[in-house]
Amino acid sequence: MNTIGVSANRLEILQIAKAVAEEKAIDQTIVIEAMQEAIEKAAKAKYGQEHDIRAKIDEQTGEQTLWRIQTVVPDDEFEDESKQLRLSEAKKIDDSLEVGDELKDELPPFDFGRVAAQTAKQVIMQKVRDAERERQYNEYKDRVGEIISGVVKRVEYGHVIVDLGRAEGIIRRNDGIPRENFQTNDRVRAYLYKVSRETKGPQIFLSRSAPDFMVKLFAQEVPEVYEGVIEIKACARDAGSRAKIGVISNDSSIDPVGACVGMRGARVQAVVGELSGEKIDIIPWNYDDATFIVNALQPAEVSKVVLDEEERRVEVVVADDQFPLAIGRRGQNVRLASQLTGWQIDLVTESADSERYQREFQERTDLFMKALDADETLAQLLASEGFETVEEIAYVASEDFITIEGFDEDVAAELQERAREYLDRVAAENDAKRKELGVEDAVMELEGMTPSFAVRLGEEGVQTLDDVAGLVPDDITGWREPGPDGKPVWVEGILKKGEMRKDDAQMFVMKARVAAGWVEPDTVEKMLAEKAEEEVPELTEEERALLALGDLGSNASDEAVDEALEELEFDLEALSAEGGDDEAAPKE
């Protein structure tokens, strides 16, 4: 081959590598490495697969070089003459060679046959495809959480394939908005929520039904959201139908709801238009859970809420005529409110709540009549004053009785004496019953154990310390599990719901394990220390203001004290304006 032909061939190799790299948006070095690998594979096919053959293409000149590599080894370790060279023979070739050095033997150029050329092409294309997939993965994995746009390439069985330019994304059927139909070449925007590395290339998953898609759309349409002045704290969607978002402003001069709605609804309508007419309720977010739940159930008006912190369930009482509005069409309003707040919401009408109250009131009245040998009028009076159990009557301070109209010290003392006698009789009956059930005396020595608790343990077959130690907290307090319709249902434990907190049940079981010798005593001490750290209360606005007063010291000036008092008054007024627990949402 003459010099001109060789130069043209070298130049052509570099041009091909550059063109492929630009087309696939990958590094030119990767293409050249693929060519080197293809040449090595073809050379091994010609000279033998057992040889260690390496090729090199100069990235500046395109010059190709081919070597066979042999590694120098001690004479007694020589095994493979195709890849190894004895030290004694190496010294004859070059006296400077030592064990571990490599001897390069340059091979002459050769012509690719048809089969070798086809193999080389496959090697290069595979290497380029792998590099292209890696580039796509690296490019899009860092864009998770963004809204990206593309063109609909095709629709397959409800799945929309989107051309993103240098990659393809997919909007799966359950990630799309129901009843939204796309045609080929339609432009579409979606939320990128996942990029996974697969054998056939990265899978880019897009969604138009994700709550985060709506959040990002508001960030694009509302400058205050983009800048962080307004935060979208929560979002719940029934894609294509209705959605609720909870917003709060970090600037007291900006109304978060008004800013998201925009002038004549321009901002929210832009989001609605992108979501195919999905209705959006913009809810003012509140740090108080009860207030936020009341807001989330808009447009229904709430009469009362009762929170169960441990179960994160809330009972919401609404007027009878507000009940359908609170439920919403097919339960949509309460379902979205539950998703938005993170609380399981149980709706109750005022009439049903009243009936339940009357029933519970009558049950307490009957109990007090029996336990205290009192007439119905006196029992009703005690029930109406808030007494719920005989224990409360027996051990409450006498002063609490005297405040009741018509009660004096003698009446209070007589009622408490009767209550204690009743409790002693019940305890004796329960103690006898637990013995019949086989509950050991050692179980009664556990801290927190009562005769009635022991009876319930015995009824469940728990008789010894080891039996108690083998329990788990859920066995005592109860638990939730999916019901036949998929909704969670409550399963009663040994005790009725609310009689013991789950963390107290855990501590009770742990103490039983210490008594049974299962664990060391210091385990309980560690648990108590951890519990004490978790229960450090957060300071309220009033407490912070009072601490500020305390920081002034005893020698503070009158002006400093007046200023602190004004700040305290302002904090209390602001708290009242936001609505406390008793005003915005009564708790029990």
Automatic annotation (TrEMBL):
<dbReference type="GO" id="GO:0003700">
    <property type="term" value="F:DNA-binding transcription factor activity"/>
</dbReference>
<dbReference type="InterPro" id="IPR004087">
    <property type="entry name" value="KH_dom"/>
</dbReference>
<keyword id="KW-0694">RNA-binding</keyword>
<dbReference type="GO" id="GO:0000166">
    <property type="term" value="F:nucleotide binding"/>
</dbReference>
<keyword id="KW-0963">Cytoplasm</keyword>
<dbReference type="GO" id="GO:0003746">
    <property type="term" value="F:translation elongation factor activity"/>
</dbReference>
<keyword id="KW-0805">Transcription regulation</keyword>
<dbReference type="InterPro" id="IPR058582">
    <property type="entry name" value="KH_NusA_2nd"/>
</dbReference>
<dbReference type="InterPro" id="IPR003029">
    <property type="entry name" value="S1_domain"/>
</dbReference>
<keyword id="KW-0889">Transcription antitermination</keyword>
<feature type="domain" description="S1 motif">
    <location>
        <begin position="145"/>
        <end position="209"/>
    </location>
</feature>
<keyword id="KW-0648">Protein biosynthesis</keyword>
<dbReference type="Pfam" id="PF00575">
    <property type="entry name" value="S1"/>
</dbReference>
<feature type="coiled-coil region">
    <location>
        <begin position="529"/>
        <end position="578"/>
    </location>
</feature>
<dbReference type="GO" id="GO:0003723">
    <property type="term" value="F:RNA binding"/>
</dbReference>
<dbReference type="InterPro" id="IPR009019">
    <property type="entry name" value="KH_sf_prok-type"/>
</dbReference>
<comment type="subunit">
    <text>Monomer. Binds directly to the core enzyme of the DNA-dependent RNA polymerase and to nascent RNA.</text>
</comment>
<dbReference type="GO" id="GO:0031564">
    <property type="term" value="P:transcription antitermination"/>
</dbReference>
<dbReference type="InterPro" id="IPR012340">
    <property type="entry name" value="NA-bd_OB-fold"/>
</dbReference>
<dbReference type="InterPro" id="IPR010213">
    <property type="entry name" value="TF_NusA"/>
</dbReference>
<keyword id="KW-0804">Transcription</keyword>
<dbReference type="Pfam" id="PF14520">
    <property type="entry name" value="HHH_5"/>
</dbReference>
<dbReference type="InterPro" id="IPR010995">
    <property type="entry name" value="DNA_repair_Rad51/TF_NusA_a-hlx"/>
</dbReference>
<keyword id="KW-0251">Elongation factor</keyword>
<dbReference type="InterPro" id="IPR025249">
    <property type="entry name" value="TF_NusA_KH_1st"/>
</dbReference>
<dbReference type="InterPro" id="IPR010214">
    <property type="entry name" value="Tscrpt_termin_fac_NusA_C_rpt"/>
</dbReference>
<keyword id="KW-0806">Transcription termination</keyword>
<comment type="function">
    <text>Participates in both transcription termination and antitermination.</text>
</comment>
<dbReference type="InterPro" id="IPR030842">
    <property type="entry name" value="TF_NusA_bacterial"/>
</dbReference>
<protein>
    <recommendedName>
        <fullName>Transcription termination/antitermination protein NusA</fullName>
    </recommendedName>
</protein>
<comment type="similarity">
    <text>Belongs to the NusA family.</text>
</comment>
<dbReference type="InterPro" id="IPR013735">
    <property type="entry name" value="TF_NusA_N"/>
</dbReference>
<dbReference type="GO" id="GO:0006353">
    <property type="term" value="P:DNA-templated transcription termination"/>
</dbReference>
<keyword id="KW-0175">Coiled coil</keyword>
<dbReference type="Pfam" id="PF26594">
    <property type="entry name" value="KH_NusA_2nd"/>
</dbReference>
<dbReference type="Pfam" id="PF08529">
    <property type="entry name" value="NusA_N"/>
</dbReference>
<dbReference type="InterPro" id="IPR015946">
    <property type="entry name" value="KH_dom-like_a/b"/>
</dbReference>
<dbReference type="InterPro" id="IPR036555">
    <property type="entry name" value="NusA_N_sf"/>
</dbReference>
<dbReference type="GO" id="GO:0005829">
    <property type="term" value="C:cytosol"/>
</dbReference>
<dbReference type="Pfam" id="PF13184">
    <property type="entry name" value="KH_NusA_1st"/>
</dbReference>
